[in-house]
Amino acid sequence: MSSMLHYQPEWVREDFIDFIAEKVNPLWAWKRVKAMIVAIEPLSPDFFKIQLRPNQNFKSDALTAGQSILVTVVIAGVRQQRSYSVIEQLKNGDLIIAVRAQGIVSKRLTQMPIHQVVELSQPQGEFLLQSNDQSRLLIASGSGITAIYSLLKQALRQDESDSPIQIDLIYFSRDQAFHVELQQLAEQHPHFHYHFINTSEIQQHLDLELLKKMTPHFQTATTYACGAQPMMYSLNQIYRDLNLQDRLKQEYFHIHVDENLPAQAVTFLRAQQQFQADRNLLESAEQAGLRPAHGCRIGICNTCSCTKVSGSTKNIITGEIDHGNNTQIKLCVSQAVSPVVINL
Ligand code: FES
Description:
Elements: H1 2-6, H2 14-24, E1 33-44, E2 47-54, E3 68-75, E4 78-89, E5 95-100, H3 104-110, E6 117-120, E7 136-141, H4 145-161, E8 167-173, H5 179-188, E9 192-198, H6 208-214, E10 222-227, H7 229-241, E11 248-252, E12 264-268, E13 273-277, H8 281-287, E14 305-310, E15 313-315, E16 321-322, E17 327-330, E18 334-336, E19 340-342
The chain binds FE2/S2 (inorganic) cluster.
């Protein structure tokens, strides 16, 4: 097999080699990253830890806490990708992701048999710990805990050697996923303060009062946040009002468009196609039968970046409106608020 992999005449195509290789071993591939599911374990009734054993093509040394991987699942013959934070990398190189059984792709992933092989991307994303923080405030809601958990573990590991700095975690969740482990970590590390808000019991949203009450020093901390859109929206508003945007590092999940905005005509200039968009521009284009390049679908990987020639778009994450001509936008997190022309 290895001699075949090193023999690369011009006419030998990668997909042909992979086709032959996977007949021998489903994990083998020339360049592609594949991984075998080796364990699936429930964290709560609908949240599962999945252990993946990647092949030799995965760049494990490049993986940093807070990054994610795209997992490709084939459903009814169609390749579908979703992004998941790597919550842990084991000593043997196995990757642990946590997946909520929501939506067709994630649900399918949590139901896959052990030893099933899936395709992965290399590590991606820039949601990483900074080195010079005075103190750290981590904020998570729902599935956003996966990226935050990975940053927390990294921060606690660093603190073993350096002088520890205060870490606070505010976690909004309707279930107990990660809760017991986080409580234990808080007991073991006196400089880590854990604030759990069980949203199935109390109606509490993120606001300035809550931030001040739980973390009076939050304005001097570096804040890392990942969660559902309403929480992220409030957080952005608070930090904007206080002129603290520089202290806020963020990652998003569950991106929804503003349903009160009317559909707009969108033109893909080079493809000479026009369609009505009432969702994010990526989904609307796909609905119209177009296939723009994409990866994560949540604004992380930049694959869907393109030039907006004219028109106004709303950034679904930050709420900012971009009226400029010839500006870069990401299709997956942009909604048209006027007729828009895209250079695609
Ligand atoms: S698909 Fe990754 S940023 Fe849009």
